[in-house]
Design goal:
Length: 86
């Protein structure tokens, strides 16, 4: 998967994760892309560990895993930041 595909997947996953889990998180276009890309990596690890597959391209299962990873990342951020409600 090329860098442009990772950026687009990251943007989509980051936006959808923030819509699913709204809150007072750091935001902005670049941060949302980074949340989605890191979420894709986390989702890939989770998917591989659970036997669901991995993030392999711009397809529905990969987007789902990236969103799952981004949600995990946002929850982790809120726990570490403290004072935020999950």
């Amino acid at each position: 998967m090329g860098i442009l595909a990772w950026i687009i997947l990251g943007l989509v996953a980051g936006i959808l994760a923030k819509l699913i889990l709204p809150g007072d998180d750091p935001g902005g276009f670049i941060i949302t892309i980074i949340i989605g890309i890191v979420g894709g990596v986390i989702g890939g690890y989770i998917g591989t560990y659970l036997g669901w597959g991995t993030v392999t391209g711009f397809n529905l299962p990969s987007i789902g895993l990236a969103i799952l990873g981004a949600i995990v990342l946002l929850i982790g951020y809120r726990i570490v930041a403290g004072g935020k409600h999950i």
